[in-house]
């Protein structure tokens, strides 16, 4: 997930090369067809569409952490159906590369700390992870493309509380066409958004063509 700064704003770019590290290898299989697209769109409510010609980057929020003692970062994520148990690190923007700073270890995943935390009552809680690495092997989200409707995702926060979510949608986008204003919004109904890379791997650009996006709602 590439994140860029636009002035004082943190912005999310359509490329997701940063979700994989140098030397990534292609996924061995492709996801099934998209499910739940209409439901995922409805959850976003009135998210403002990206203006024409600016689809490569979408302003999200001011480049500072949310204020107040009520913010609850996620620390652990479990998805039994695809055998995932992963530590979640708070991540932001790498000032040198302007990229979404997903943890370098592929077995860890990153929560976008400039968005909503687990205490939120609205908006999209974004967690992104690597799909794989030539050096480290399969990433925590290697099988994210296999998730289907009603699969359960459990996220534990720093408060020790476990929160269960139910998958309602799984979609694959060309990186240049992903509606980021939908997935990085602070408004609309509360949902959990999981993102990784997918589709064919381009050896020249050393990145995947697509993004896999899974949307889940409180169970």
What can you tell me about this protein's structure?
The protein is mainly beta. It has a single domain, classed as Sortase, Chain: A. 5% of the residues lie in helices and 40% in strands. It contains two helices and 13 strands; from the N terminus they run ββαβββββββββαββ. The longest helix is centred in the N-terminal third of the chain and has 7 residues, at 37-43. It is globular. The chain starts with a strand and ends with a strand.
In short:
The protein has 219 residues and is mainly beta. 5% of the residues lie in helices and 40% in strands. InterPro entries: Sortase, Sortase_dom-sf, Sortase_F.
Q: What is the number of helical segments per DSSP (H or I, 4+ residues)?
A: 2
Instruction: List the uncertain runs.
Output: 1-29, 49-63
- What is the global morphology? globular
**DSSP strand tally:** 13
User: What letter string, H or E per element, gives the SSE order?
Assistant: EEHEEEEEEEEEHEE
What is the CATH architecture annotation?
A: Beta Barrel
| Fold-level CATH name | Sortase, Chain: A
How is the biggest beta sheet arranged?
8 strands, mixed, barrel
Distance between the termini: 27 Å
Any idea how many domains?
1
The class by helix and strand makeup works out as mainly beta
What top-tier CATH class fits best?
Answer: Mainly Beta
Strand content: 35-45%
Mean pLDDT: 79
CATH H level: which superfamily?
Sortase
Percent helix: under 10%
**Overall radius of gyration:** 16 Å
Strand order of the largest sheet: 4-5-6-7-12-13-11-10
Protein name: Sortase family protein
Region (Disordered): 41-71
Pfam family, one: Sortase
Keywords: Hydrolase, Signal
């Amino acid at each position: 997930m590439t994140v860029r700064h636009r002035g004082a704003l943190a912005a999310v770019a359509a490329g997701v090369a940063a979700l994989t590290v140098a030397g990534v290898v292609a996924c061995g299989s492709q996801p099934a067809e998209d499910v739940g697209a209409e439901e995922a769109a409805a959850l976003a409510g009135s998210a403002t569409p990206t203006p024409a010609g600016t689809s490569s980057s979408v302003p999200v929020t001011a480049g500072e952490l949310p204020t107040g003692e009520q913010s609850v970062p996620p620390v652990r994520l479990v998805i039994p159906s695809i055998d995932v148990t992963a530590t979640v690190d708070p991540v932001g923007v790498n000032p040198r590369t302007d990229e979404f700073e997903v943890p370098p270890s592929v077995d860890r995943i990153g929560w976008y700390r400039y968005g909503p935390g687990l205490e939120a009552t609205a908006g999209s809680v974004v967690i992104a992870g690597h799909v794989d690495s030539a050096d480290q092997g399969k990433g925590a989200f290697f099988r994210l493309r296999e998730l289907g409707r009603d699969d359960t995702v459990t996220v534990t926060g720093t408060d020790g509380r476990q929160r269960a979510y139910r998958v309602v949608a799984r979609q694959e986008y060309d990186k240049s066409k992903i509606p980021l204003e939908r997935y990085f919004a602070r408004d609309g109904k509360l949902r959990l958004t999981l993102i990784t890379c997918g589709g064919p791997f381009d050896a020249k650009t050393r990145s995947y063509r697509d993004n896999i996006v899974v949307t889940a709602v409180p169970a």
